[in-house]
């Protein structure tokens, strides 16, 4: 196991004590039926996640990795296949009726598309007033009006009179997303789950919405889940980052540690594909929203690879990676990864520059006409592959 030096103290020590929402070993399988019969999609497996008061946790992963499914499980939109969701320590996975309604008031989901999630035929006064009344947060016309003004002010839509009678189509994308956030705030939630809440907004206004979410964390103590495929925006907004790959969480830790000292090859791939993961913090905030590069093909979730699901794309894959799933290893306080490199004492490989992804070394060797590589001696593979071919296998150069 490697040891890493903690660069920063946990950014929000006081938040650590109060876990608001938690997922324990949560799994979701979907059954899909086609002309040839049915199959099981293993969309999410063994997810552990904690959301703390006054903290933003980012969940980062490429398309199809299960991010939306996790958000929907946490909002009780889907029943879990296994595991448990807990709000303030109490299991909620199977609540119904009034208890479920109470839960929906505490945990609000923000969607990607603010336009689709607002009723286009109703003005803002109606949209916000309805949320307040349904959840019993205001009574009587005067109180409802006052609360709507307060909500618009909290999301920086001021003066409120300028917005209250507008219809969604009369607002910009960023203003609409602020209305969606105001509607979520109307029910006085403890948790907000943002499923790519800025990805459909113009680049110029994305930062404003992220800053609003930070303000809600800091001033109102909300626990926030920020879902994204862009690790740079996760770094900008989040206190902690969890990395998802093919339905599983593979690494988690403070944002600074995950960015500066990634402990899973897939996190390295995300960082290497991101034009500049440090951007957004040193002034160049527009480039915070560049898209990540080509990440290659993720595996099927109907027939996921045996062992570690990343093994078909991992340049460090060893025999054991194709056989057994790696366990969670804590590499420094609060920073963990699931990768055999840690259990096999080979995590120093992660520090190499210019890792070439998508071609495990055995495949590269086979393509170069070299016999089986000794998987037990990955560090010595340059010996097994000596000669002209090693130059093509960059990361393993001595
Ligand atoms: N209702 C469903 N029925 C069957 N399969 C589903 C269902 N919902 C999601 N899936 C599958 O589960 C996997 C995870 O999907 P999910 O939408 O959670 O990924 P995601 O990380 O949010 O992707 P994206 O970044 O594209 O939004 C995908 O393979 C998807 O096809
Ligand atoms: S080294 Fe093995 S366990 Fe680690 S990511 Fe690569 S394939 Fe998975
Ligand atoms: Mg999604």
Automatic annotation (TrEMBL):
Keyword ATP-binding part of the UniProt annotation: yes
Q: Which Pfam families match?
A: ABC_tran (PF00005), oligo_HPY (PF08352)
Query: Which SMART domains does this one have?
Result: AAA
Give every ABC transporter domain span. Answer: 21-271
InterPro entries assigned: AAA+_ATPase, ABC_transporter-like_ATP-bd, ABC_transporter-like_CS, Oligopep_ABC_C, P-loop_NTPase
Entry superkingdom: Bacteria
Tell me what this protein is called: ABC transporter ATP-binding protein
List the source organism: Brachybacterium tyrofermentans
């Amino acid at each position: 196991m490697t040891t890493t030096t903690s660069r920063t103290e946990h950014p929000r020590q006081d938040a650590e004590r109060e876990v608001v929402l938690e997922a324990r070993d949560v799994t979701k399988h979907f059954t899909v039926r086609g002309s040839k019969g049915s199959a099981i999609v293993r969309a999410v497996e063994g997810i552990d996640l904690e959301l703390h008061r006054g903290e933003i946790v980012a969940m980062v992963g490429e398309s199809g990795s299960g991010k939306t499914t996790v958000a929907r499980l946490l909002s009780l939109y889907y029943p879990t296949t296994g595991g448990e969701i807990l709000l303030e320590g109490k299991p909620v996975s199977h609540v119904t009726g009034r208890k479920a309604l109470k839960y929906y008031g505490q945990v609000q989901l923000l969607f990607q598309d603010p336009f689709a999630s607002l009723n286009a035929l109703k003005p803002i006064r109606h949209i916000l007033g309805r949320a307040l009344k349904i959840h019993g947060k205001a009574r009587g016309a005067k109180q409802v009006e006052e609360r709507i003004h307060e909500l618009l002010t909290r999301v920086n839509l001021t003066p409120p009179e300028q917005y209250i009678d507008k219809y969604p189509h009369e607002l910009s994308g960023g203003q609409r997303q602020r209305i969606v956030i105001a509607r979520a705030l109307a029910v006085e939630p403890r948790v907000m789950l943002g499923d790519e809440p800025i990805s459909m907004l113009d680049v110029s206004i994305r930062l404003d919405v992220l800053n609003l979410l930070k303000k809600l964390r800091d001033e109102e103590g909300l626990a926030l889940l920020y879902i994204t495929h862009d690790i740079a925006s996760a770094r900008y907004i989040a206190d902690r980052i969890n990395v998802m790959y093919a339905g599983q969480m593979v690494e988690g830790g403070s944002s600074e540690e995950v960015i500066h000292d990634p402990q899973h090859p897939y996190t390295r791939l995300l960082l290497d594909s991101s034009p500049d993961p440090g951007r957004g913090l040193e002034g160049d905030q527009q480039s915070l929203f560049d898209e990540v590069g080509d990440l290659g093909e993720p595996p099927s979730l109907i027939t996921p690879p045996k062992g570690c699901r990343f093994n078909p794309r991992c340049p460090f894959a060893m025999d054991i990676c194709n056989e057994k799933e790696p366990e969670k290893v804590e590499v420094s306080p609060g920073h963990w990864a699931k990768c055999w490199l840690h259990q096999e004492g080979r995590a120093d490989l992660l520090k190499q520059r210019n890792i070439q992804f998508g071609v495990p070394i055995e495949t590269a060797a086979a393509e170069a006409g070299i016999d089986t590589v000794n998987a037990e001696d990955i560090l010595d593979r340059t010996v097994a592959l000596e000669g002209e071919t090693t130059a093509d296998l960059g990361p393993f150069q001595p």
